[in-house]
């Protein structure tokens, strides 16, 4: 590629740079005038980025934020309204926040850093106040290719067209993964800067050789038989997460409203943890995503762990992300410590302590059931699934622990044991170190299990 080309910028439709019409009146976006009897709080979210649902899709459907605001309104004599604005990526949310049109938003770790940088540059500083979902190994991002493609691993991407959303967490995974594979992420591939849905269409049409995207796009495409995973982001073993950001001015002027939002987010987190199947069904209904895909990420053993806490390891990972964005020319630098504000979450009521994610287990979801069954091994799951009316079966990758659909996984027979992997490369890495083990088809794995 031409080394003198201009740096790619995050996706930011021009229309979104223009001021939004104040459909909600003078109080919209900015939280209302001081002393106003009606205050509209504008929340930007990504409905199909499903590990933000406790601050977006699920929270909205449950009505918890509106409930918390109604209770607060009775005390302070203010009528609160919520305006929910749905976007495909974090970039337009940042554009509207820095224009004073969105008060609270949720987005991934890389977009959060851009949010911080843009806020500082445009004199509309923002603060990171909570996490939604995370994966300590990085399993929320995946690189996929079309079924039957000759591309089977990252090394096969040299000179190929790869679609991603520049400035996103998925792009960060792609850059780091390529570097580890000895491929220059700027010159070694032809990067297409596209929104997730556009990239998915490009992959299907053959105008992109691979797609690097964040939850839930890789799982959705795999579930639909439109993609095969070639790189599991968990191979990086670097935490990735999504979080909640707020305009600093709004947080100071409407601290009670922010407290209400975080209290509502905790309630939504409790709901998702207590009723994961119901939550997945709800999110599926709201977004049009298959419930089986939502559950892959947000289920009891899902790839994402939901916890609002600003865990030290997540903040440390955020600091490691800064050089990647700086090298891409997307930020000059970010003071992460100044961006992170732990005080609002500490103030918020209902503050349970959630345990860290443990090792994922194989899980079976039968049709007509409102709960799932877990198993100690993939082999046990396959035995139980034989002859059953299966809605979805999930197995963890034997190396990374990333959950994947059993019928889309790469299977390995190792003596009497059966192992599952997200990608062919991982399966080959395993068999290369285990003499006698061999890669087998899913049908053969089912036969061996029974």
UniProtKB/TrEMBL annotation:
<dbReference type="Pfam" id="PF09084">
    <property type="entry name" value="NMT1"/>
</dbReference>
<dbReference type="InterPro" id="IPR015168">
    <property type="entry name" value="SsuA/THI5"/>
</dbReference>
<feature type="domain" description="SsuA/THI5-like">
    <location>
        <begin position="86"/>
        <end position="279"/>
    </location>
</feature>
<keyword id="KW-0732">Signal</keyword>
<protein>
    <submittedName>
        <fullName>ABC transporter substrate-binding protein</fullName>
    </submittedName>
</protein>
<feature type="signal peptide">
    <location>
        <begin position="1"/>
        <end position="26"/>
    </location>
</feature>
